[in-house]
Amino acid sequence: MSSNLKKVLVTGGAGFIGSHLVDRLMTQNYKVTVLDNLSTGALKNLERWLHHPSFTFIEDDLKNPQNLEKATRHADLVFHFAANPEVRVGETDPHVHFEENLLATFNLLEAVRKTRNARTIVFASTSTVYGEATVLPTPEDYGPAIPISTYGASKQGAEALMSAYAYTFNLRALILRFANIVGPRATIGIIVDFIKKLQKDRTRIEILGDGTQKKSYLYIDDCVDAVLCAVNKFLKAKEKVEVYNVGSVDQVAVKRIAQVVAEEMGIPAPKFVFTGGVDGGRGWKGDIKTMHLSIEKLLGIGWKPKYNGEEAVRVAVRKCLQK
Fold first, then answer.
1. Backbone angles phi, psi at 138, to 5 degrees
2. Is 53 exposed, middle or buried (0-12, 13-18, 19+ CB in 10 A)?
3. Backbone angles phi, psi at 245, to 5 degrees
4. Domains of the chain listed by start with CATH number
5. What pTM value is reported for the model?
6. Digit-coded pLDDT (tens) for 234-257
């Protein structure tokens, strides 16, 4: 990234993706401040940096706006990765996504607007903003985007706020729509779920839905590479707002992921028990059954993933089992 942007704020920096981004920024000699309420993140993800002179950790909540201006005042660049990432919670407690994803984003944008220092925000969005896309792979300009979960809706709303603030208050917003990111430090998701189930009972594994769900899976190191590649490109450009899909070149079916997890755990033939799911075999309300992001735009600026989807899943399982 630009040598003029040495002071970086990462919201959600103690979480899965955020902490891996922090690792990369710290090794590249940036001064990094992390703001995290530790609701889903963990200090152990940042323990190697806690006493480093170029690192600052602030335990605070984006829902408490009174302290945000202090965190943003000295930042040259903001990575907004804080969110509640659990899609399923929307069915039983939808206000969580409104408050922790949409309201929190508004509060951060207000703090950035008032402090007038950082002019660029990098936002971790999601493939779920597209809803059930009829074009696969789905490009960034696909529309209309119709989310089917409160999580996707909250992220779509946050994207709209990013764009509005960029044009109204002379900010710049880089929006990154992530596929399913996998790797060590993940606390939720299909791999974590399958590992826990097989550790409890090696003879069977319950699979939500009908097992035919197919989605893009990207390894965390490839994800961080993509983030920094997109940031580098954006900082050299003039656009107020830019959007990139961040995903893999292919898809992996849920049933195949269960097989890979079992193989890596040395379990030859566990019984697969399918719940049948809802709404035509989905794992839960709001689950996108088929997702495949087009990554041509990101490939076009020089990024290329090291792993395809199944390789990413397999490496992620191995890393998770090592901890």
1. -90, 120
2. exposed
3. -75, 140
4. 7-181+217-246 (3.40.50.720), 184-216+249-322 (3.90.25.10)
5. 0.96
6. 999 999 999 999 999 999 999 999
